[in-house]
Amino acid sequence: MAVFSSCGVGRLFLREKLKLIKSALKEWHSVDGRNIPGKIDVLKIRLSELDEKGEEGGLSMEELEEMRGITHDIHSLSRVSTSISWQQSQILWLKDGDANSKYFHTILSSRWRRNAIVSLLVNGNLVEGVQPIQNAVFSHFKDHFAA
Question: How far is residue 142 from each of residues 79, 99, 117, 126, measured CA to CA in Å?
Fold first, then answer.
């Protein structure tokens, strides 16, 4: 085992290792870290193909294992995508701060639009408006949990 002197040989060695790690991470990112949503879409297409084949006939053991693997890969890539999105939002937040930024209001507005229930289809009838939707949802869950 080599003992490094305090003249900087250890730091030089560490710096070279960090450079190698940096280049390896860049290469990994360029190969595996890009276009995660595209990879998820490709996996979903393959999963639906296998699902359709399973409905038409039987699936072999290899195809069943492939389905399990694809499902696992979709969940893993979704977690990675979520993590990346969270990290990017944190970077934007650190850069822009907590001021009432355009980014903050855009995210908030999109969340409101995404979470809003504008209309429901109940027993073939379209229900619109706040109070009718509340009544329909309340009635549905009341009947569901009463049983």
Answer: 35, 43, 19, 20
Residue 46 has what DSSP assignment?
A: H
Q: Which residues contact 46 (CB under 8 A, 6 or more apart)?
A: 66, 70
Report how far apart, in Å, the C-alpha atoms of 79 and of each of 86, 100, 120, 132 are. Answer: 10, 29, 31, 37
The mean of the pLDDT values for the chain is 83
- Tell me what pLDDT residue 1 has: 47
Domain ranges of the chain: 9-116
Task: Write the CA distances from 147 to 136, 139, 141, integer angstroms.
Answer: 17, 12, 10
